[in-house]
Automatic annotation (TrEMBL):
Organism: Reichenbachiella carrageenanivorans
Gene: murF
NCBIfam families: murF
Enzyme class: ligase
Record-stated family: Belongs to the MurCDEF family. MurF subfamily.
Cellular location(s): Cytoplasm
Entry function: Involved in cell wall formation. Catalyzes the final step in the synthesis of UDP-N-acetylmuramoyl-pentapeptide, the precursor of murein.
Higher taxonomy: Bacteria, Pseudomonadati, Bacteroidota, Cytophagia, Cytophagales
Listed GO MF terms: ligase activity
Keywords attached to this entry: ATP-binding, Cell cycle, Cell division, Cell shape, Cell wall biogenesis/degradation, Cytoplasm, Ligase, Nucleotide-binding, Peptidoglycan synthesis
Catalytic activity annotation: D-alanyl-D-alanine + UDP-N-acetyl-alpha-D-muramoyl-L-alanyl-gamma-D-glutamyl-meso-2,6-diaminopimelate + ATP = UDP-N-acetyl-alpha-D-muramoyl-L-alanyl-gamma-D-glutamyl-meso-2,6-diaminopimeloyl-D-alanyl-D-alanine + ADP + phosphate + H(+)
Domain Mur ligase C-terminal: 295-411
Name this polypeptide is given: UDP-N-acetylmuramoyl-tripeptide--D-alanyl-D-alanine ligase
């Protein structure tokens, strides 16, 4: 092992954890001076030491450099190597979860199932990239019994790199859709990128969990002799109008707080993983899970029921959410959909497809928000707005009442702000 990582690991074991932002720094933490497009952590290294950091890891010399600073070639690479070394100290299951849609919900459900009988460490929030995965690994404590690492990607090779860092023993790809298709450069590239997780498991003898309802994943299952597949006898969808009801292997019906048939596959994955790892009763953890953070939340505003699913959006997830809205029994069903980002040259066609699909559903009203939908808009039955403020102005004059409303859009659209204007809902 590199002497620098060996020295740093000794410091890590004496520290109170990792910090990459001096605004959140606690005393006795290691400060990693990461660089980004709009920031340079090296500029805050001296401040970190003054605030009580045990050590500042930098890749640019400081004017007052001393034994409280560790100068390395590249801070990010150093962070990743330290995390990988820490991970190597554990001989426990490491489950990696990736996919175009549903990976965060599946991670949250699985974490709750596994935590019902053992100590689990898992990705918090959306820390699923080349920085977030190492930070997650470095939170693993000596008595941890199970680790879940969410992995996101928008370019080829990213999942492969994350696998080399996290060394998963088990893996799940929720599905393969069109998320980030612009960055990947096409659906085939997305398939190759997501399959990097399964490629790693094949190489290392790991165990994949495979959703046979996804035709691409079903085809991938042929590569494995040890694949664990679902759906299976442990979970069968009963209904989702709008909340998911499912049956277990004994025929008992379970009710959940999760909306839409698309969430059933996330539930089924969590149940399957729990059963595989001998969790005696995984169902209470799932049935009691309350979605939050703008992910399939159900909110009551005035006389309206809001399905707030505004954390992110891509063509597949928007089509699924619209279809779910269409099967809900309501006298007034309304969709408010914001732009889907990171579609590149596919953007116009994908936004048109979503508009055309919505037109077939018989919804009572549809509002599109953002330049991409405005550019694709060619229907008189719905309305399109360049800015969300324009829609807010309309609804302030014509508040919604007695409606079931789906609100969805990419993170950058901040569609959840509609719920912050109580005057829009009566």
């Amino acid at each position: 092992m590199d002497q620098t990582i060996s020295f740093l690991y000794e410091k890590f074991l004496l520290s109170d954890g990792i910090c990459t932002d001096t605004r959140a720094l606690q005393k006795n933490q290691l400060f990693f001076a990461l660089k980004g497009e709009h920031f340079n952590g090296n500029a805050y290294a001296e401040q970190a030491i003054a605030s009580g950091a045990l050590l500042a890891i930098i890749d640019e010399p400081q004017s007052s450099i001393n034994n409280q600073f560790l100068l390395v070639d590249d801070v990010l690479t150093c962070l990743q190597q330290l995390a990988s070394h820490h991970r190597s100290q554990f001989n426990i299951p490491f489950l990696a979860i990736t996919g175009s849609n549903g990976k965060t919900s599946t991670k949250e459900l699985t974490a709750r199932v596994m935590a019902s009988d053992r100590k689990v460490q898992y990705t918090k929030g959306n820390l699923n990239n080349h920085i977030g995965v190492p930070l997650t690994l470095l939170t693993i404590e000596s008595d941890t019994e199970f680790v879940i690492v969410e992995m996101g990607a928008n370019h080829l090779g990213e999942i492969a790199t994350l696998c080399e860092i996290a060394k998963p023993t088990h893996g799940l790809i929720t599905n393969i859709g069109s998320a980030h298709i612009g960055e990947f450069g096409g659906k085939e590239a997305i398939i190759r990128a997501k399959s990097e997780l399964f490629d790693y498991l094949r190489k290392t003898g790991g165990v994949p969990f495979i959703n046979l309802q996804d035709p691409v994943l079903q085809n991938m299952s042929k590569r494995f002799a040890n694949a664990i597949t679902y759906p299976n006898e442990w979970c069968a969808l009963k209904s989702a109008t709008p909340f998911v009801y499912y049956k277990d292997e004994y025929g008992d019906t379970h009710s959940t707080e999760m909306i839409g048939a698309y969430n059933f596959w996330n539930i089924c994955a969590a149940v399957t993983i729990g059963k595989y790892f001998k969790v005696e009763d995984p169902y209470p953890a799932i049935d009691g899970y309350m979605p939050d953070n703008n992910r399939s939340q159900m909110i009551e505003l005035g006389s309206n029921t809001i399905i707030l699913d505004a954390y992110n959006a891509n063509p597949d997830s928007v089509l699924a959410a619209l279809n779910n809205l269409a099967v809900i029994k309501s006298q007034n069903r309304i969709a408010i959909i914001g732009d889907m980002k990171e579609l590149g040259t596919y953007s116009l066609d994908e936004h048109k497809k979503v508009i055309d699909f919505a037109e077939t559903l018989g919804l009572d009203a549809v509002y599109w928000v953002g330049n991409d939908f405005v550019n694709a808009y060619n229907h008189s039955k719905s309305k399109a707005f360049v800015k969300i403020e324009d829609l807010i102005s309309l609804l302030q004059k014509q508040p919604l009442a007695g409606a079931t409303v789906l609100i969805k859009g990419s993170r950058g659209m901040r569609m959840e702000q509609l719920t912050e204007h109580t005057e829009l809902w009566t």
